[in-house]
Specification:
The protein has 2 domains: 146 residues, Rossmann fold (3-Layer(aba) Sandwich); 133 residues, Rossmann fold (3-Layer(aba) Sandwich). It contains 12 helices and 12 strands. The strands form 2 sheets. Strands 6-12-11-10-7-8-9 form a 7-stranded parallel beta sheet, with helices on one face. The chain has a 5-stranded parallel beta sheet with strand order 3-2-1-4-5. β10, α10 and β11 form a beta-alpha-beta unit. α3 runs parallel beside α10.
C-alpha cells in the first residue's frame, strides 16, 4: 500500500536538478538515503566530503532506523532522522517536518526507490537518483561524487602491511549478492589459515543466520535493528583485523580505517574500493603462502 502512495505522489514530478551555484547559494540540504547496506556506507563517506566542502549549510539526513548508528559514527556533525517508512504516523510526522522546514536542495544517492524520491519532492530543487545518468562501469564512490557534483579523485590503493600478530580477528563472510559470499568450505579454510598464521587468535564471525557458526569461534548474529548496528560497530572497533567478503562491512571497515583483508571473488577492485584505501585484497584463501 505504501508503495502505491509513493508512486502516486511522484507520478507527475520530474527532477529539478540543482547546479553548483544553486548548492553554493542554498541554506538547507536534505539527503534521503534508503539504499542497500554497503551503498549507504559509501553514501555517508562521500557525503562527509560534501559537507567538508559546504560546511555552512543546515543538513538533514533521512534513513531507516538500523542505519542511524552508522550515520552517527561517520557523520556525527549532521542531523539524522531515522524512522519506519511503513508506519503511517511516522510518515505523517516526517512529511509535516519537511513541509515546515522547506529544504533548498535534495539528494538521494544510490537510492532508486520511490520512497527516497518522495522525500526529495519537498525540496525546491532535486535530482532523483533514478534520473541520474551514470556510466555502467565506474567506481561506486565516484558515482556518488559525480551525482553530488564533487571533484573526481584519481584512484589508487595503498597495500596494507600486516602486523606480525593479531589477537582478535572479525570475519564477515556474507554479501547481499550470494555469489560474493564465502562458502562454508571457504570460511573453514580461512579459519585454518588465520589460526596457523597468527597462533590461534580469538576469531569472531558476524553473519545473518547461523550457518556460519563454528564451535571454535564466537558468533555475532546480524539483525536489521539499530541496536544490532550499534553492537556491530563496537565489534568492528574492538577487533584488530577484519576479513570480509565484497560486502557492506568492508566499507564500514574502510571508513573506520581498520586493518582489512578483502576476499574478492567476481568483482573488480577498481569498482569497489574507495580511492586512497589501505587494505589487502585477495583472490585466494591461502593466507599463509600469500603473505
Amino acid at each position: 500500500m505504501i508503495n502505491f502512495f509513493f508512486k502516486f505522489k511522484i507520478k507527475n514530478r520530474n527532477s529539478l536538478p540543482p547546479s553548483i551555484s544553486d548548492i553554493q547559494k542554498s541554506k538547507k540540504i536534505l539527503f534521503s538515503i534508503f539504499s542497500r547496506y554497503g551503498d549507504t556506507i559509501i553514501d555517508l563517506v562521500v557525503i562527509k566530503e560534501f559537507i567538508s566542502l559546504y560546511p555552512d549549510k543546515e543538513y538533514l539526513l533521512l534513513c531507516p532506523r538500523q542505519m542511524k548508528p552508522y550515520v552517527e559514527e561517520i557523520l556525527p556533525m549532521i542531523e539524522c532522522l531515522a524512522f519506519n517508512k511503513r508506519n503511517i504516523f511516522e510518515m505523517l510526522r516526517v512529511t509535516s517536518l519537511l513541509k515546515k522546514r522547506s529544504f533548498d536542495i535534495g539528494f538521494n544517492p544510490w537510492s532508486n526507490g520511490l520512497d527516497s524520491c518522495y522525500f526529495l519532492t519537498f525540496c525546491q530543487r532535486f535530482l532523483f537518483y533514478k534520473d541520474f545518468q551514470k556510466p555502467i562501469e565506474i567506481n561506486h564512490y565516484e558515482v556518488v561524487r559525480r551525482y553530488l557534483m564533487l571533484k573526481e579523485k584519481s584512484w589508487f590503493i595503498d597495500k596494507l602491511t600486516l602486523k606480525q600478530n593479531y589477537k582478535r580477528i572479525l570475519i564477515c563472510p556474507e554479501s547481499t549478492d550470494v555469489n560474493r559470499s564465502l562458502s562454508i568450505k571457504e570460511i573453514d579454510k580461512t579459519i585454518l589459515d588465520l589460526n596457523e598464521l597468527y597462533n590461534f587468535p580469538k576469531i569472531i564471525i558476524a553473519a545473518i543466520g547461523k550457518k556460519y557458526q563454528r564451535n571454535e569461534c564466537d558468533f555475532f548474529n546480524f539483525e536489521k535493528t539499530a541496536e544490532s548496528s550499534s553492537k556491530f560497530l563496537k565489534l568492528i572497533k574492538m577487533n584488530e583485523l577484519l576479513v570480509c567478503a565484497d560486502s557492506g562491512p568492508l566499507h564500514v571497515a574502510l571508513a573506520l580505517n581498520k586493518d582489512l583483508i578483502v576476499i574478492m571473488k567476481n568483482t573488480d577492485a577498481r569498482v569497489v574500493f574507495n580511492s586512497g584505501s589501505t587494505l589487502k585484497s585477495r583472490k585466494t584463501l591461502n593466507f599463509v603462502n600469500s603473505y
